[in-house]
Amino acid sequence: MSNAINVVAISGGLQRPSRTLALTDAIVAALGAALPIETRLIELGEIGGRLAGALTRAQVPAELEAQIRAIETADALVVASPVYRASYTGLFKHLFDLVHHEALIDVPVLLAATGGSERHALVIGHQLRPLFSFFQARTLPIGVYASESDFDQYQITNPALRARIALAVDRAVPQLRRHALSVAAA
């Protein structure tokens, strides 16, 4: 798949099973159905203990350095975090504190979040979008928010959420293609 778009998906859930991971997987599956992609999944729940001990990039263990480099060299990102205390998790922020500040310039980023109720839905616009604006990433216009009621046993059951994922992916695909072409031409 030489023309595949390199998508790195970051699931900020700290436990497994996780609604955040289920949402991330659903978005990535929809992207994969729409265009050729190669995906790398980074689960914060799996790397959290080692990541938390690295206060600077120089302290990052080699296996985590590879994860950070994957983020920095991705053609596109799918990022999802559960909402804790009205924002993304501290560990999610710590991961991106270690990403080089110029690595994500113009990289398309599809934003997603999960929370206990709809009252946290603004986290995408008020927390995630500003974080990736700092990196000068190209946050895609439609994010995906899911609440606890959208799932049963960590499986998406709400047709409206599936429709939102489909819409976000439909709108993302042309931008991902354009970005991949511009990177290939450079």
TrEMBL record:
GO molecular function: oxidoreductase activity
Residue span, NADPH-dependent FMN reductase-like domain: 6-149
Keyword Secreted: no
Domain of life per record: Bacteria
Pfam families assigned to the protein according to its UniProt record, in alphabetical order: FMN_red
Similarity-based family: Belongs to the SsuE family.
Name of protein: FMN reductase
Source organism (scientific name): Burkholderia contaminans
Name of the gene this protein is made from: msuE
